[in-house]
Amino acid sequence: MARVVLKNLTKKFKDVVAVDDVSIDIQDKEFAVLVGPSGCGKTTTLRAIAGLEEVTSGEIYIEEKLVNDIPPKDRDIAMVFQNYALYPHMDVYNNMAFGLKLRKFPKKEIDQRVQEAAEILGIEKLLKRRPKELSGGQRQRVAVGRAIVRKPKVFLFDEPLSNLDAKLRVAMRTEISKLYHRLGATIIYVTHDQIEAMTMATRIFILNDGKLQQDGRPLDVYQDPTNQFVAGFIGSPAMNFFPSKLLKEGSDYLIDAESFKLKLPSAFHKAIAAHAGKEVTFGVRPEDFHDKQFYPNAKPENTIKAQADVIEPLGDEVLFYLVCGKHNLVAKLDSRTKVKVGDEIEVALEMEETHIFDGENEKTLV
Ligand code: ATP
Fold first, then answer.
1. CB–CB of 231/318 below 8 Å?
2. The dihedral of CA 100, 104, 109, 111: what is its sign?
3. DSSP letter string over 212-257?
4. Which sign, positive or negative, has the C-alpha torsion 208, 211, 216, 220?
């Protein structure tokens, strides 16, 4: 059971707290993705799991065994780095075989493992080539192959796709997902790219400023972000935020963003009642705006008027960058929308899908 557990992990570099009291529990055969903006402590966490970084405090368990004092080579893990650092003077076969040779594996076993990994990765025909004779994607496969031949319990990936161009990145993303299903191993994968995280992970762990913000299945985190940071980080284009005041009028609660006022659904009342009269942030995902014309539930109380500033057709949908009073917002609308730049448009909000965050501590109220 290759479960990986971090208990209150902290890593300081002098006065920089790179990882701040992080506790995570990665189950056997999980595809865990650590995601967050640059400098949030992802790589340091991964390197601590690998044993490449001594921790300041806290415990790391691999397969229920405390590994804090166990050297990297004895942790039964394999790491694939961003700069895959293949040996330039060795061919693909020897790049993959190198680690096993160092560990004095018998030649026959090495040969069998390299052939098997090459077949899994579709690089059987490249075994005699040197790294400089390979494309970026092929090199990345060899780097993964080097990890596979070790047959580790846990694979650690540190931004392995960030050196590849956009198209190749998408292709490799699918390949790594397939590989995960085929290998049946635990994977811990670090990226700053939330799309990579959402599409590959069985569980994502979102970090900011060295602290774990939230973990969960990707769609659960998307639908129920724990705070404004997570809400803004997961999702592309990002959620729109409107600093607002929460008003109570009779038995109704309203969002007052100055440029618009909207009535909140009664399902929200219990969660927001204590915040009446206070500052809050109103959050709306781009896809929760609709062109009024194509939205049968449009009513004056859930509709706002805005001006089209920039229009980006994506094919089936169109991104509209709109201006509403002092607010800029992005809406993902039906491609039948006929509005042109400079025109006024009425957009209806799917109010049940919107979010409200505490104006002070930024925690999600609803
Ligand atoms: P990126 O996506 O940019 O790689 P990251 O989330 O992986 O970022 P880390 O590399 O873990 O972030 O760094 C976390 C913090 O620790 C940063 O503020 C970084 O500057 C600092 N840090 C990392 N390594 C060292 C080091 N060897 N010495 C001093 N500070 C360091």
1. no
2. positive
3. EEEEE-HHHHHHS-SBHHHHHHSSSSPPEEEEEEEEEETTEEEEE-
4. negative
- Residue whose structure tokens are 């609709």: 290
Q: Which protein residues are within 6 Å of ligand 1, measured from CB?
A: 13, 16, 18, 36, 38-44, 192
Q: What pLDDT digit, counting tens, does each position of 292-350 carry?
A: 999 999 999 999 999 999 999 988 889 999 999 999 999 999 999 989 999 999 999 99
| Probe target for ligand 1 pocket from 9, 13, 192, with the most ligand atoms within 8 Å of CB | 13
DSSP assignment, residue 264? P
Q: How far apart are CA 209 and CA 294, in angstroms?
A: 42
| Å from CA of 41 to ligand 1 middle | 6
- How wide is the angle at C-alpha 87 spanned by C-alphas 83 and 93, nearest 5°? 110
Q: Which pTM value belongs to this model?
A: 0.93
